[in-house]
Amino acid sequence: MMNKRRFLAGGSVMAFSGGVSLLRAQPAMAADPFFYAGQGGYAADGADVVAYRDLNASSPGVPGSKTFSTNWKGARWRFANAENLARFEGDPKAYAPQYGGYCAWAVSQGYTAHGDIDAWHIENGRLYLNYNQRIRTRWRRDVPGNIARANANWPNVLNA
After folding, report:
1. CA 134, 42, 148 angle in degrees (round to 5)?
2. Percent helix, strand and coil across the chain, each rounded to 5?
3. Dihedral of CA 152/150/94/26: which sign?
4. 88 with 95: CB under 8 angstroms?
5. d(Cα 4, Cα 105) in Å, to the nearest integer?
6. Does the chain have fewer CB atoms within 10 Å around its N or its C terminus?
7. What is the full DSSP assignment across 21-49?
8. pTM value?
9. 19-32: per-residue pLDDT in tens?
10. Residue 26 burial (CB count, 10 A)
11. Contact 106, 113 (CB under 8 A)
12. Nearest C-alpha neighbor of 104 from the set 132, 121, 135, 128
């Protein structure tokens, strides 16, 4: 599969796909960890992945706290409160973001990029993160098709 990531000087990244440029993306590199760990090394950039179930679709993600954290599948996870931590520990697969928290649209296109905790979508009880709001809009144009393409690419895209 063609690698669509492009690297620029100074650590900035520009990825092109279908006429859309993604500036300052944080792409995955070959043999990246299964879960994207951004800010401070926490999965989903330290967002409380359980809290998304209680938000309306236009709400930003909820930051987690160091006080309520756990490890699962080699990743560190944060939560806003003890109840959400317990819910996650009871069924982590139900709450963990799909495609390791990388941008779901990017995975559907055959590459990886950072998933933004504020550009999220829940479909059939599953959490999907996207690079930004504009890419989330693109993702939502064909959610079933994008999920099918992303499922076909995941997790092989981590080693592309």
Report:
1. 45
2. 35, 25, 35
3. positive
4. yes
5. 13
6. N
7. EEET-----TT--SS-B-GGGBBGGGB-T
8. 0.80
9. 443 333 444 444 55
10. 19
11. yes
12. 128
Tokens of 68: 């309520």
Per the structure block, which two tokens stand in for 95?
């709450």
Beta bridge partners of 71: 76
Q: Decide if 113 contacts 103 (C-beta within 8 A).
A: yes
Three-state DSSP at 14 gives: strand
pLDDT tens-digit readout, 98-142: 999 999 999 999 999 999 999 999 999 999 999 999 999 999 999
At which residue do the structure tokens 């697969």 appear? 93
Given the structure tokens 């679709």, which residue do they identify?
A: 57
